[in-house]
Amino acid sequence: MKLQDKVCIVTGAASGIGKEIAITYAREGGKVVIADLNKDAAQATADEITKSGGQAMAIAMDVTNEDQVNAAVAEVVAAWGGVDVLVSNAGIQIVHPIEEFPFADWKKMLAIHLDGAFLTTKACVPHMQKSGKGGSIIYMGSVHSKEASVLKSAYVTAKHGLIGLCKTVSKEGGKYGIRANVICPGFVRTPLVEKQIPEQAAALGISEEDVIKKVMLKETVDGEFTTVQDVAEVALLFAGFNSNALTGQSLVVSHGWFMQ
Ligand code: NAD
Hints:
Elements: E1 7-11, H1 16-27, E2 31-36, H2 39-51, E3 55-60, H3 66-80, E4 85-88, H4 103-131, E5 135-140, H5 153-173, E6 178-185, H6 191-204, H7 208-216, H8 228-240, E7 249-253
Helix pairs in contact: 1-8, 3-4, 4-5, 6-7
């Protein structure tokens, strides 16, 4: 058990990558908080984990709302005594050519990905400092933290920004044993990506099959999607790694789409 009784908050854990990370952490003994905008789906995930013998609680949280983030973290600390691991994972995708990108959508993207990462970090760090045990903060970046694609100006900007936040949190957290790292997945077939396939087909004037083969997986070494399990394994590595030797890093998990 790599995370025995560690309190792990995972945002956006009601679906996709976050859900698999929560399940993996619970299997490794973690006490997992399923924090998500979608309270019913969060509760369903928490129930699934507890039914299979794990420890989980669901919390409604809009990561862009400071009061909700602070209240949720306070609730976790009251129930379970602290926070050991934060996975800032909640995210959405909105695609447009830049000249047509509605300013409101740009602001929404930056709010979910960057404000969400900032607010959850700010709320958890004092508890990691106070405990004397430090902690692990994991940001869900993307290959788009390193590379750009057409139509994704807001997403690429936000995901690049997470690397700057991670490096700063690593430096500030060092003396407390608070580590920060970024996971950078390639395309993973979650609801977020399923939604993009028809949208990109329409925007680029190509078939959905071509979006998968010639856009999403074109640069991989084997034409394969990355899986939620692949990403969860890396999230487990970062969460369970107990020294500052591994901090301030970003690890790409993308079937070779992007090579550092
Ligand atoms: P998903 O749509 O399956 O899950 C996202 C979850 O985030 C949902 O449960 C949703 O309710 C929640 N959420 C959305 N807005 C929120 C908010 N304001 N507050 C709290 N929760 C909110 O998506 P996914 O593919 O699992 O994506 C998870 C993360 O992984 C995102 O940050 C995404 O950018 C990143 N990512 C995904 C891929 C991919 O190919 N799927 C690749 C690289 C990075």
